[in-house]
Amino acid sequence: MAKQKFAKESITIMTEMVLPNDTNTLNNLMGGRLMHLMDISAAIAAQKHCNRIVVTASADSISFKQPINLGNVVTLRSQVTRAFNSSMEVFIEVTAEDIPARKKIMTHRAYFTFVAVDQNGKPIEVPELVPETPEEIEHFEGALRRRQLRLVLAKRMKPEDAVELKSIFNLTEK
Ligand SMILES: CC(C)(COP(=O)(O)OP(=O)(O)OC[C@H]1O[C@@H](n2cnc3c(N)ncnc32)[C@H](O)[C@@H]1OP(=O)(O)O)[C@@H](O)C(=O)NCCC(=O)NCCS
């Protein structure tokens, strides 16, 4: 297994057209359908990084700011931001395009976490991720803080062990 991989090696672009079966009664893309597409696109990015089977461990808060309309073309760009032991954080950006109207808007952003597992579902190590561009470095540096926050919220880490979070909130020991 490669010890290190570049962030760019995981870039995954997925494009879909919103069809009637994907929409609610207002002719907008259903949230659940969008989350399904996000999950698949992000899982492919995680697989590209580790060349293993991956499972979704968590999806950070996803807000639906802008509706995506019937007939729009949805593009999902996913990329691994950082790899830990067996887990990888993936950043997903969604854009919706009305091609005839020549309009394109960024509609959603989210972070998902995937864990690489063996055939028995047991977590296994993944290669380190090497960021190169300024954006990749920014995502990489913020990933530790986001990981600690999600693990504390999932009750998988004690708040007192979340050292990176303490440094942002400037919490000092009493
Ligand atoms: C994700 C899963 C493999 C973790 O297994 P586990 O036995 O709890 O393993 P560990 O406690 O050793 O954790 C393994 C990794 O998962 C990460 N993890 C576990 N739960 C997490 C969560 N809620 N959010 C983010 N990361 C999480 C841990 O931080 C750890 O990361 P690291 O190895 O990089 O340090 C296991 O919970 C699982 O199989 N869940 C179901 C996944 C699934 O079916 N998803 C699709 C349907 S929703």
From TrEMBL:
InterPro entries reported for this sequence:
Cytosol_ACT (IPR040170), HOTDOG_ACOT (IPR033120), HotDog_dom_sf (IPR029069), Thioestr_dom (IPR006683)
Family affiliation: Belongs to the acyl coenzyme A hydrolase family.
Question: This protein is called what?
Answer: Acyl-CoA thioesterase
Enumerate the SUPFAM superfamilies for this protein. Thioesterase/thiol ester dehydrase-isomerase (SSF54637)
Which residue stretches, if any, does this entry annotate as coiled coil?
none
For the keyword Zinc, the answer is no
Which keywords has UniProt assigned to this entry?
Answer: Hydrolase
Entry annotated with the keyword Coiled coil? no
Start and end residues of each HotDog ACOT-type domain = 8-120
Instruction: Name the source organism.
Output: Algoriphagus jejuensis
- Out of the domains of life, which is the source? Bacteria
